[in-house]
Design brief:
Elements lengths: L9 E8 L6 H14 L3 E8 L6 H7 L7 E6 L6 H14 L4 E5 L7 H9 L6 E7 L5 H18 L10 E5 H8 L9 H11 L4 E7 L25 H16 L7
Parallel strand pairs: 1-2, 1-4, 2-3, 5-7
Antiparallel strand pairs: 4-6, 5-6
Length: about 260
């Protein structure tokens, strides 16, 4: 039986943002519709990574049209996705909400799936949305598969979707975990997944649907190189992977290290 939400339930949503002008209105509006339908009182903490389009203006224009509270902040300089997500998490914790969600701003997930994760949170420290029939380029799917193997052999952690950007934390658990993740980490979600398993938190995986991003092109702005050629691996993605590997190398292999 699903949890019945009331207006007393507080949820904060950490949402990194970068150049999502063509889809952000639909993403936030549909999220508001589903959360409000579920009777959730929420705060949306948008962390802008110095967008060069009018994404921020479009988000701010929604502040009087949605039922939730909207808080927008911009980085002083472009930090990329990982550090921006870390900042969004921290701001969400500062709201005092009991539950902290993370979801990206590209609209690749159905907001009703986020509501399902929230309604089944119960006593879990972390619920991760495991992407079903992932609608992403081949190189991202290959890296995710390799990441699952790496986590097992290096850290002894099995995760169905370690870097999934749709997840729900108990705020107390997140605050404790986030203290061990560098503010400059390119992969905070992966590190949070590893830490949650290592420290014995109750981690649950729930299947969520995945779709192409909202907007004119399917591939997100983080990996865009001016073209939407799904077969070509963007240089920015290669740089990200190298940075992520360096971060793994710095992460202690064993719990006692």
């Amino acid at each position: 039986m699903e949890t019945m939400w009331t207006a007393s339930v507080d949820v904060a949503i950490a949402m990194p943002l970068y150049n999502e002008s063509d889809g952000i209105t639909e993403t936030v509006s549909s999220l508001d519709r589903e959360l409000s339908k579920a009777g959730l009182r929420y705060v949306l903490c948008v962390q802008d990574d110095c967008s060069t389009d009018n994404s921020v203006e479009k988000v701010r224009a929604l502040s009087k049209l949605i039922q939730g509270e909207l808080r927008v902040e911009s980085n002083e300089k472009n930090l990329r996705h990982g550090p921006t997500t870390h900042r969004a998490y921290q701001r969400s914790l500062d709201t005092g909400a009991a539950l902290i969600c993370q979801i990206d701003s590209d609209g690749e997930f159905f907001p009703e799936d986020l509501v399902k994760l929230l309604s089944s949170s119960g006593q879990h420290g972390l619920i991760i949305g495991a992407r079903h029939k992932r609608q992403s380029p081949w190189f991202r799917r290959v890296v995710t598969a390799g990441l699952r193997v790496l986590l097992v052999f290096r850290f002894g952690v099995f995760s169905r979707d370690p870097n999934s950007p749709i997840r729900v934390f108990n705020a107390t658990a997140l605050a404790e975990l986030l203290r061990s993740v560098s503010a400059n980490s390119p992969i905070p979600n992966v590190q949070l997944t590893i830490l949650a398993h290592r420290r014995g938190l109750r981690v649950k995986y729930a299947r969520v649907n995945h779709r192409p991003r909202r907007g004119a092109v399917e591939e997100g702005t983080m990996w865009q190189s001016g073209k939407s050629e799904r077969a070509r691996v963007p240089k920015s993605f290669v740089r990200f992977c190298l940075g992520a590997l360096a971060e793994f190398w710095r992460t202690p292999k064993h719990k006692s290290e």
